[in-house]
Amino acid sequence: MKILLVNPPDDLDAMLGAGANLITPFEPLGLLYIAAVVRDAGYDVQVIDAWVERLSIEEFKKQLKESNPDIVGFTVLPANGGIVYEVGKWLKEEMPETVVALGNLHASIYDEYYLKNGCCDFVVHGEGEFGFLEAVRLIEKGGRDFGSISSISFLRDGEYVPNKEKGVINDLSELPLPARDLVKQELYNIPSISNLPYSGKKTSIGKHMFTQRGCPYRCSFCTVHHNRKQRSNEVVRAVDEMETLVKKYGCDYIFIMDSLFIANKKRVHAICEEIQERKLDFRWGCQAHVRCVDEDLVKAMEAAGCHDMAFGIESGVDRLLKGVTKTTNIELVEKAVRIVTKNSKIKVSGLFILGLPGETYDDSLQTIRFAKSLPLDMAQFSILTPYPGSEIFEDLKEKGEIDTGIRPDGTLDTATWLRYSAYISYTDLDPIWVTPGLTPEKLKKLQKKAVREFYFRPKQIINQIRRVRFGQIPTILNTAFKSAF
Q1: Are 196 and 145 part of one and the same domain?
Q2: Do 334 and 214 belong to one domain?
Q3: Are residues 231 and 375 in the same domain?
Q4: Whether residues 135 and 249 fall in one domain
Q5: Within a domain: 166
Q6: 315 is in which domain, residue-wise?
Q7: CA-based max dimension of the chain
Q8: How many other C-beta atoms are found inside a 10 Å radius of the C-beta of residue 225?
Q9: 479 — pLDDT class (breaks 50, 70, 90)
C-alpha cells in the first residue's frame, strides 16, 4: 500500500507580501515523524513538500495524480486551509479510491466542515503518529469506519462522528527520528535572514528540531495549550538527534523549537554537558521564558554553542500582559534580557505582539519604546492574530466578533483564512480582528513604525550588516524598506 504525506502549497505572497522573504524553509517535521512511524511499520511512504518547492496548485495536482497513492495525508494550517479544501475536493472526484486524511490543529478545529464538504475521509486529532498508523492498518484490511480509533473523526453514513479524544504521546522515546531522508535536503539549506548565524563557511546549513512537546503555560493568544502537558526526550536521545544533524546532514546551526526548552534547568545543563562531551561543532538557538534564565544556565548554554535565544515578551504594558494570561511583567523581562547580555555573547531576540485585547494607540507606542530600551539584537513585531484554537479566538467566536470562514449554509469561505497572518501589514489585506480603539490602518502603520524605529538606528544597521553575507544585503534592504515604509 502506497502512502503519500503532503505539506501543501500556500500563497505566501498574498498572505505575507514582503514578509515572505523572511520565511525560513524548515522541514515539515510533523509529517516526517508520521512518515518515520509508518515506514517503520513496513509501509511504502513518500513525502511531498509543495510549500518549499513552491509548486503551483496545478503542478501540485499533477504530482498527486502521478504518485497515485492509496492514502494521502495533508497537514493543514490557516495559510493553506483553502488550498487543502480545493485540492481535497478535487482528489475525491478525480481519484475516488484514494483515501484522504487531514491533520494538524486547523483541520481539527474545522473537521466537520471539511468532512461534510467532501474534502477528506477522516481527520486525525492531536499528535497524529500512532492514530494515523492505526487508520492505515484498518484501511489495509478494507475498513472505512474509524470509530475504533479514539483520535479520529469521520462520517458514518453521512453523519458526523467526532473524535473521542486528542492523540497524546506521553513517552516520546516511542518515536523514531523524523524521516528527513524523504525530503530534498538541498531545498532547506538556505540561510535564514532572521536567525541563522554566519558561520564563515561557503554554505551554512540550518535545521530545526524538537526535544519536547507541550507547554505548561496558557497564554490566551497561543494554541500550544492544546498539549499543555510537557513531555521531554531523554538527554541522550536529544543529543543523538543533534549529532545526526551535524554529522549526517552537515548542519552547523540548529534551532530548538520547543515551546519552553529551558524550563527544566537540570535537563538543559545535562544537554549542554553531553554536547561538549561529544565535541559537537555547531551553534544553536532556542525559545526561552523570562522566568527561567539565570547566570549559571546562560554560561553553560554559551559554552555548549548557544548562539541565540528568543523571548516571548509580547508587550511593554503590564496590564496587557495580564490580560492575555502571561505570567510575566516588565520588570522580569528587563532582568532576564540583561542576565543574558551581561553574562554571555548570546544574541537575544524579543517577540512582540501589537493589537492585544484592550490595547490603545499609546500602549502600542509604549511597546515600541520598551523594545528599543532593551539590549536586543533582533525584534519581531507581529499583529495579534487570534488563531483558531486559541482562547482569544474561542471567546471572539462565541461573541460573533470574528470571521471564522464558515458561511451560514455551512460551507467554507476559505479566502478568509489568508487574513490569519501576523504580518498582514506587508500586504493589501486587513487583519482578521482588531481590538476596539484601533483600526486596521492604524495597526498596520504601527507595525511598520515598530520595524522602522527598532531597526533603522545606526547601531542596529551595523549589527545586521555584520551578521549576514554580502550577497544577502540587497534582499535584506529590499525587505526592510518594504516592511518599514
Answers
A1: no
A2: yes
A3: yes
A4: no
A5: no
A6: 188-385+421-484
A7: 66
A8: 18
A9: low
Contact 212, 230 (CB under 8 A): yes
Do 139 and 206 reside in the same domain of the chain? no
Across 368-476, the runs of DSSP E, i.e. the strands, are 378-383
CA 431 to CA 47: how far, in whole Å? 33
Cβ contact 349:377 at 8 Å: yes
* 182 domain-assigned: no
Chain center to CA of 400: 27
Tens of pLDDT, residue by residue over 440-467, are 999 999 999 999 999 988 877 777 666 6
**Per-residue pLDDT tens over the stretch 381-419:** 999 999 999 999 999 999 999 999 888 887 778 778 888
- For residue 241, what is the domain's CATH number? 3.80.30.20
CATH number of the domain at 24, please.
3.40.50.280
CB 161 within 8 A of CB 187: no
* Strand-by-strand arrangement of the 99-103 sheet: 44-49, 2-7, 71-75, 99-103, 122-124, 152-156, 159-161
Q: Which of 104, 126, 161 is the last residue of a domain?
A: 161
- Tally the C-alpha atoms within 13 A of residue 344's C-alpha that lie toward its C-beta: 24
C-alpha cell at position 202: 561557503
348 and 296 both lie in a single domain: yes
pLDDT value at 478 more than 80: no
Residue with cell 484592550: 358
The answer to whether the CB of 386 falls within 8 A of the CB of 349 is no
Q: Among 96, 55, 56, which Cα is nearest to 72's?
A: 96
Inter-axis angle of helices 235-247 and 265-277, nearest 10: 40
CA gap 316, 288 in Å, rounded: 18
Nearest to 367 by CA among 328, 331, 315, 417: 315
Sign of CA dihedral 371, 435, 110, 21: negative
Q: Phi first, then psi: what are they for 44, rounded to 5°? A: -80, 115
Measure the CA–CA gap between 351 and 281, rounded to whole angstroms.
28
Looking at the structure of the chain, the number of domains it has is 2
Q: Would residue 207 count as lying in a domain?
A: yes
Residue 176 lies in a domain: no
**222 and 156 part of one domain:** no
Shared domain for 325 and 430, answered yes or no, is yes
Cα–Cα distance between 130 and 355 in angstroms, integer? 39
| CB 166, CB 441: distance < 8 Å | no
Contact criterion met (CB below 8 Å) for 98 and 69: yes
